[in-house]
Specification:
single chain; mainly alpha; two-stranded antiparallel sheet
């Protein structure tokens, strides 16, 4: 995917989220629907797999977070909705769920940082979204929560060590009745 298409996808998702939230005032369902639709369209349109799939998910989710922030919406609700939307779509398209969850959590944490929102809240919300989405599609909530926490820490590791510590505190432990354990520690490369 070239730079213009990438920007086009992110901007398209952002614009859709902005207009939908302005129209309805609802963040979570708007993001779930927008993310699901955009991912399905992008994947079916390009046949994206591997790195291209990761890039597509990242672009869609960062656009959703950016649009939500632009209208003053709750970025935490957007992060949760984004992960639920990806999980629903992953199931529909036959995409491996753990990778999709991890990529999604990473993207929402980075997206939150890009718009100046709290990365800890975004990370915790992504984990909550993974738990909710896993329950809806019949996956292991523990595995989904772990994948989200791990992805959130990866995203935080690309921001700063302070972000890693903030995410570690908010996205692990017991969340929504599920013990959440990240797979490994992450640090920003020196």
């Amino acid at each position: 995917m070239d730079r213009d298409n990438k920007k086009g996808l992110m901007e398209s998702v952002k614009d859709t989220v902005v207009n939908s939230i302005r129209g309805s005032g609802e963040v979570a369902n708007t993001v779930i629907e927008t993310v699901s639709g955009a991912v399905v369209t992008a994947i079916k349109g390009t046949g994206a797999v591997g790195t291209a799939l990761t890039t597509t998910l990242s672009d869609v989710l960062r656009g959703a977070i950016s649009g939500t922030a632009q209208v003053g919406g709750d970025v935490g609700s957007a992060a949760k909705g984004a992960v639920v939307g990806v999980l629903q779509t992953a199931r529909e398209l036959g995409i491996e769920s753990s990778d999709a969850i991890s990529t999604s959590a990473r993207a929402v944490v980075k997206g939150a940082a890009e718009v100046g929102s709290d990365v800890g809240i975004a990370a915790r919300s992504a984990v909550e979204g993974a738990i909710t989405g896993a329950r809806q599609v019949g996956l292991s909530v523990e595995d989904a929560a772990s994948a989200a926490a791990t992805g959130a820490l990866k995203g935080a590791g690309e921001i700063s060590q302070e972000a890693v510590e903030q995410v570690r505190k908010t996205a692990t432990g017991v969340i929504a009745g599920v013990k959440v354990v990240a797979k490994e520690p992450f640090r920003k490369a020196s």
